[in-house]
UniProtKB/TrEMBL annotation:
It catalyses: L-proline + NAD(+) = (S)-1-pyrroline-5-carboxylate + NADH + 2 H(+); L-proline + NADP(+) = (S)-1-pyrroline-5-carboxylate + NADPH + 2 H(+). One of its GO terms (biological process) is L-proline biosynthetic process. Its EC number is 1.5.1.2. The lineage of its organism: Bacteria, Pseudomonadati, Bacteroidota, Flavobacteriia, Flavobacteriales. This is Pyrroline-5-carboxylate reductase. Signal peptide: none annotated. Residues 2-97 form the Pyrroline-5-carboxylate reductase catalytic N-terminal domain. Residues 160-263 form the Pyrroline-5-carboxylate reductase dimerisation domain.
């Protein structure tokens, strides 16, 4: 696969990290662009990686174009690369928050494959949850996007109207879960563990909880029932957390994030 990432900032960098660290990724060339390429220099020596500020050149040398710039930068980049786009050859994948497929089509047309995608930063370690939607032409090439993002985690094809919600749950969700892990770590320190041990305990326990649900297919409450000994310490802690608004604050946070994303 010949892939270009236009705008290799936080998210673009994470995607590049993921692609370059997966041994089984079918990569021929990876073209990375950004305005100041200094932070990408360490990859310049890799034989299949090219670093540049030149978006047009990156498009000419690639088949899959991943757009990873800020929302306000997208229009300029699309206008710049439009003359280089080949309707048969190129698949354009946008990971830009809040920019709809029809906005992209209004600049580069609807005869080219356009896939709107929302990965999260766990893509750098091959564990992203990535949602995908495509325009009519893009539906023919959705397998290309799936093969890229399935190599870097899991994918789900969704209706485009749900893309903002998916962004909150999966992309912002990484930050939400980090805070929960940090809070649990702080609790463990208060109970006597040193900071490093506390974080390891919290991280592995979070991974174990998610793995239990993934492997068993069970509802979280079914697993909670197995842990909550009657009159025991788990239900005592859980009920106190709920009295303090744990579930309610998470749901309100998700809603606030969703309201904000609709203003971006
Ligand atoms: N799914 C997720 O987990 C996340 C998604 N995002 C979304 O991803 C997009 C990028 O966000 P970040 O990576 O945080 O932004 P960023 O500002 O770190 O990266 C954007 C990059 O684009 C480059 N750039 C700007 N104009 C350019 C141009 N004309 N040609 C080539 N490169 C250009 C900049 O130099 C910068 O390196 C945004 O739409 C953001 O909302 C951001 C963070 C996390
Ligand atoms: O915070 C944001 O607006 C972006 C979109 C999802 C993750 N980061």
């Amino acid at each position: 696969m010949k892939i270009a990432i236009l705008g290799t900032g936080n998210l673009g960098y994470s995607i590049a990290m993921g692609i370059l660290s997966q041994d089984n990724f079918n990569l021929k060339n990876l073209y990375l662009t950004k305005r100041n390429v200094d932070s990408l220099k360490k990859w310049d020596k890799l034989p299949n990686v090219k670093i540049s500020t030149d978006n047009k050149k990156a498009v000419r040398f690639s088949d899959v174009i991943i757009l990873a710039v800020q929302p306000k930068q997208l229009q300029g980049v699309l206008e710049e690369i439009k003359p280089q786009l080949n309707l048969k050859r190129h698949t354009v994948i946008s990971v830009v928050t809040g920019r709809k497929i029809n906005e992209i089509e209004s600049i580069i047309g609807n005869e080219i494959s356009i896939i709107r995608s929302m990965p999260n930063t766990a893509i750098s370690v091959g564990q992203s949850m990535t949602c995908l939607s495509a325009n009519e032409k893009g539906k023919e090439n959705i397998e290309i996007a799936k093969s890229i993002f399935n190599s870097l985690g899991k994918t789900m094809c969704i209706e485009e109207r749900l893309m903002q919600a998916a962004t909150v749950i999966c992309a912002s969700g990484i930050a939400f879960w980090m805070r929960l892990i940090r809070a649990s770590t702080q609790g463990a320190v208060q109970l006597g563990f040193d900071a490093e041990e506390a974080q390891e305990l919290s991280m592995q326990t979070a991974l174990g909880a998610a793995s239990l649900l993934l492997k068993s297919g069970n509802h979280p409450e079914e697993e909670i029932d197995k842990v909550t000994t009657p009159n025991g310490c788990t239900i005592e802690g859980l009920n106190e957390m709920e009295h303090q608004g744990l579930s309610s604050s998470l749901i309100k946070g998700v809603k606030a994030s969703f309201e904000k994303i609709n203003q971006i």
